[in-house]
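Tokens for chain A. Residues wanted.
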């Protein structure tokens, strides 16, 4: 390859990268504008939940979601931790009696407001980092097929909470007094 060809391809790559950065920045800005009203509603819902009779452990999770609603790093954390969560679920399901024991355990109803704020949180962090959202979507499609093969799909909200923190793994078992019918 001649020096001229090398310079030509260098500038093609540089210009293409620059265009991609500008387009990505515009997408992130537009998503941030779209997410802002939802983020404001999330703050109101979060304050109401914090003033309710939720257990303190659940209030910590709500505070965490409110504090990290603008964080693109949270989206990357989900992208990185989802494979480990799925692998753990597969191991549990493949153990003798692992899937059957959990299937018979009674699960209390889930607090509707907590599900709503979780959805708002997920949208908010993915608006802050659409590339991570795209990669997580690809992971979920891939692992969703694996989950169907092993023993059924995992609810997205449970997977997101499990990836968030060890404390949040049992949050659906503990959520408040307003329940989904």
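Reply:
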């Amino acid at each position: 390859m001649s020096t001229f060809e090398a310079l030509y391809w260098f500038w093609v790559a540089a210009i293409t990268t620059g265009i991609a950065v500008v387009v990505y920045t515009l997408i992130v800005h537009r998503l941030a504008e779209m997410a802002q009203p939802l983020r404001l509603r999330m703050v109101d819902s979060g304050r109401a939940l914090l003033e309710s009779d939720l257990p303190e452990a659940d209030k910590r999770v709500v505070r965490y979601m409110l504090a990290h609603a603008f964080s693109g790093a949270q989206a990357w954390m989900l992208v990185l931790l989802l494979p480990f969560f799925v692998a753990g679920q597969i191991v549990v399901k493949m153990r003798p009696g692992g899937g059957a024991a959990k299937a018979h355990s009674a699960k209390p109803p889930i607090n509707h407001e907590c599900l709503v704020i979780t959805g708002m949180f997920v949208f908010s962090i993915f608006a802050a980092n659409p590339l991570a959202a795209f990669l997580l979507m690809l992971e979920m499609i891939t692992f969703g097929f694996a989950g169907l093969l092993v023993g059924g799909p995992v609810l997205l909200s449970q997977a997101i909470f499990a990836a968030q923190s060890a404390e949040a793994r049992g949050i659906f078992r503990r959520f408040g007094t307003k329940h989904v019918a």
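Residues 165-181 have pLDDT under 50 and may be disordered. The two ends are 68 Å apart (CA to CA).
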